[in-house]
């Protein structure tokens, strides 16, 4: 069975190029194209697509309004087609919150030649989206709703806060998973380093959005920063993020080397650096995502004494990365996303006093 794709975009050129890309794949077919959400609504009823590609800025009905209604009334895998602008990245972050599975960016230069160069990327994202678990939009766990998930363990031990680190990796579905994890972190939690597969230009908006939602400070890593308790550092889209040491302090490092597992930033690169410089002071967390990036690095972390957690299949949008880590024995515990913050904090609260410098 071919993957049925409906393309929704107000640009005739983008509709044509996307149709050419998708139509060239032997396992896909374009079942319809729509210039706006109103036409798309009727085509969804007629064609019952497996995946929908949606421009973020649309006429007649805003793309976000359409997405919100779609995910409420007829949830389905949606890939947003976004522009590489600050506004485009902010709208895309909002679309992922509303339930979009993933996004692709329009090229800066010639649209037609640029989009054709993206053929493999777009096809891969559609294949992943067709297998994704699409759920109604979840309610963020913020201060107002935190009581509903119980009292989270507090990390008060100064040694825990200064020496322990939380190292997180994610891909498809990870922006929401990371948000739901971080909003439950108390202000005194250990420093957190995060690699989320995301292109340059979007990680800063992602960090800014999280910073406004969380008790901790969240920023895009600049490289050379001291890793502080109560702070989270997100890999920028143009570089690998690594953990390093400067004297007695942990610091962030950036590297623009070749992609690893087809990704830069790569989760494996971050996890391996944590194995080297944090050892048993690291707590690894691998979340939803396609592929195997992070599995080998997480095993290195475990072998260095780190304690590792993986998101379970039922709560993942895509179970690929956690599955690979579990399969090679890299994890200690597996659990649903809404329980992972409690599990991590409980581990830190009970093991922090034994943290040692490496």
TrEMBL record:
4-aspartylphosphate PTM positions: 55
Location(s) in or outside the cell: Cytoplasm
InterPro entries: CheB-like (IPR008248), CheB_C (IPR035909), CheY-like_superfamily (IPR011006), Sig_transdc_resp-reg_Me-estase (IPR000673), Sig_transdc_resp-reg_receiver (IPR001789)
Pfam family name, one: CheB_methylest
Transmembrane segments: none
Annotated catalysed reactions: [protein]-L-glutamate 5-O-methyl ester + H2O = L-glutamyl-[protein] + methanol + H(+); L-glutaminyl-[protein] + H2O = L-glutamyl-[protein] + NH4(+)
Domain CheB-type methylesterase per the UniProt entry, residue ranges: 158-351
GO molecular function: phosphorelay response regulator activity; protein-glutamate methylesterase activity; protein-glutamine glutaminase activity
Top-level division of the source organism's lineage: Bacteria
Catalytic residues identified in the record: 171, 197, 293
UniProt PTM comment: Phosphorylated by CheA. Phosphorylation of the N-terminal regulatory domain activates the methylesterase activity.
GO terms for cellular component: cytoplasm
Domain Response regulatory: 4-121
Any GO BP: chemotaxis
EC number: 3.1.1.61, 3.5.1.44
Position of the signal peptide: none
UniProt keywords, alphabetically: Chemotaxis, Cytoplasm, Hydrolase, Phosphoprotein
Gene3D superfamilies named in the record: 3.40.50.2300, Methylesterase CheB, C-terminal domain
Predominant location: cytoplasm
Entry text on domains: Contains a C-terminal catalytic domain, and an N-terminal region which modulates catalytic activity.
Protein family per UniProt: Belongs to the CheB family.
Its biological purpose: Involved in chemotaxis. Part of a chemotaxis signal transduction system that modulates chemotaxis in response to various stimuli. Catalyzes the demethylation of specific methylglutamate residues introduced into the chemoreceptors (methyl-accepting chemotaxis proteins or MCP) by CheR. Also mediates the irreversible deamidation of specific glutamine residues to glutamic acid.
Protein name in the entry: Protein-glutamate methylesterase/protein-glutamine glutaminase
Originating species: Undibacterium pigrum
Gene giving rise to this polypeptide: cheB
């Amino acid at each position: 069975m071919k993957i049925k794709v409906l393309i929704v975009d107000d640009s005739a050129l983008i509709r044509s190029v996307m149709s050419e890309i998708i139509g060239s794949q032997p396992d896909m077919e374009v079942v319809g194209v729509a210039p706006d959400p109103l036409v798309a609504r009727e085509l969804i009823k007629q064609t019952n697509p497996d995946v929908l590609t949606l421009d973020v800025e649309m006429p007649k009905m805003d793309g976000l309004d359409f997405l919100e209604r779609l995910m409420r009334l007829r949830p389905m895998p949606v890939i947003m087609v976004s522009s590489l602008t600050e506004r485009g990245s902010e709208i895309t972050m909002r679309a992922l919150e509303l339930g979009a599975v993933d996004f692709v960016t329009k090229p800066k230069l010639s649209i037609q030649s640029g989009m054709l160069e993206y053929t493999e990327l777009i096809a891969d994202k559609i294949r992943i989206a067709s297998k994704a678990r699409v759920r109604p939009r979840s309610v963020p766990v913020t201060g107002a709703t935190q009581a509903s998930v119980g009292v989270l363990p507090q990390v008060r031990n100064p040694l825990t806060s200064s020496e322990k680190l939380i190292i997180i990796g994610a891909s498809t579905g990870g922006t929401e998973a990371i948000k739901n994890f971080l909003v439950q972190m108390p202000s005194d939690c250990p420093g957190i380093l995060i690699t989320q597969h995301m292109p340059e230009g979007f990680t800063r908006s992602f960090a800014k959005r999280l910073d406004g939602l969380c008790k901790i400070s969240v920023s895009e890593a600049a490289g050379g920063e001291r890793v502080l308790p109560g702070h989270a550092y997100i890999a920028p889209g143009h570089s690998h993020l690594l953990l390093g040491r400067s004297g007695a302090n942990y610091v962030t490092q950036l590297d623009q080397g070749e992609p690893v597992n087809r990704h830069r930033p790569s989760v494996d690169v971050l996890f391996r650096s944590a194995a080297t410089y944090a050892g048993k002071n690291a707590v690894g967390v691998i979340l939803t995502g396609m592929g195997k990036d992070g599995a080998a690095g997480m095993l290195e972390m475990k072998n260095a004494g780190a304690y590792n957690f993986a998101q379970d299949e039922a709560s993942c949008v895509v179970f690929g990365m956690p599955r690979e880590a579990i399969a090679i024995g890299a994890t200690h515990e597996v659990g649903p996303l809404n329980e992972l913050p409690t599990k991590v904090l409980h581990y830190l609260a009970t093991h922090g006093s034994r943290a040692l410098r490496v």
